[in-house]
Amino acid sequence: DAAMDPKPIPPYYCCYLLRSTGGGFQRPALYIGSTPDPPRRLAQHNGVSKGGAKRTARDGRRPWEMVLLVEGFASRVGALQFEWAWQHPAASRHLNKSRKKPKEGRKPPARRTRLSLQAHLEDLHLLLRTRYFAAWPLTVRFFAADVHRVWKGWCDRVDGVVPRHITVVGDGDCEEAPLGQQGAGKSKVGGVKNIQTDYAHIYGYLEKGMDLAENLAGLHCHLCEIQFNQEDLVTVCPQASCKCVTHLICLSTKFLDRASDEDRFVPLEGNCPACNETVPWQLLMQELSIRTRGRVMFQAMRRKEKRKAQKGTKKGSNMPEGVQYSAAPVTDSETVLDLSQAHAHVSDEDNLSLDDNWAELLNSESEPETKTNPPRVEIVIEDSDLDDAISLG
């Protein structure tokens, strides 16, 4: 059953913090959610397009702005886990384990309701330092300068430090230099509307990987030098000019051997053994997941690219075989791939209530979704239904 097949890693998933800019209120409201498409989700919250959460539609709180995004989740479930922990810090096992224990014999202080911007940023900082989430290749992207300043002020005061591999980007109207180390391809995009949420930016890499994988016969692993079998799981270097192909386990072992964290089971990145360029592990796995689980989807992408090339509408028709991934905005509307007729990786989950379905979602984390509606690459899920809009206080 095709509906039960494992799905490719989605092109984009994030958690976000909304802030109300509607007038007539002493304090703006805040809202935490997750989405695979921030521009469309923001339009829904603001009533520009159909959808959005009821909590963000009432009380004249519109318009809303997305003041920050936490990017880099490899699955919908991963984003939902982070979202829930951020929404419910008092109940999250990740945060409770990381908080300092009160001295023995003293009554623990009552847990205050965390409603303010400062509180949400403190909880975010702690979440990024927890053992579970600290291992993920995440990026925190700020679009509001005042929110970024609050974050930096807390970073200067708090004892703990966000892991170096988690990139913090000052975007939008943030004028000061961003905190943390800038990762490859983690440049400014200018605004939420420019967030790229499809596979268009890595199409060349996907095409290269698919072509190499279909002709494995006679090729050898660059590391162990053993000839490939057609069914082997192999990784392909994303660099355009590099033809390095390795066994998945060989490259993983090499990357982990050179990692500074001896307890890590999944690499973050490493240097290609052929071209020596730094390669993000999640990008390698995204390409592999599409090659092994999303062939129908890729063929639809390829047909669309060919049609555009034939019509002469595609910019830069001589696309190189290798990767051209970056965080730069896509200005050509035709680059957004409409794959509603293809068997893509996820299905729409409009009107999803995280609070009502959270246990079920966690229990089915390793199980594929079984919805029968025609799936699409670009999807929309609802924010969690919070008890109420969260006010600054």
UniProtKB/TrEMBL annotation:
One of its GO terms (biological process) is double-strand break repair via homologous recombination. Keywords: DNA damage, DNA recombination, DNA repair, Endonuclease, Hydrolase, Metal-binding, Nuclease, Nucleus, Zinc, Zinc-finger. GO terms for molecular function: 5'-flap endonuclease activity; crossover junction DNA endonuclease activity; zinc ion binding. PROSITE patterns: GIY_YIG. Residues 33-57, 93-114, 302-324, 361-393 are annotated as: Disordered. Residues 380-393 have a biased composition (Acidic residues). CDD domains: GIY-YIG_SLX1. GO terms for cellular component: Slx1-Slx4 complex. It holds the Pfam family SLX1_C. Residues 94-114, 302-314 have a biased composition (Basic residues). Residues 11-97 form the GIY-YIG domain. PANTHER family: STRUCTURE-SPECIFIC ENDONUCLEASE SUBUNIT SLX1. This is GIY-YIG domain-containing protein. It comes from Aspergillus ochraceoroseus IBT 24754.
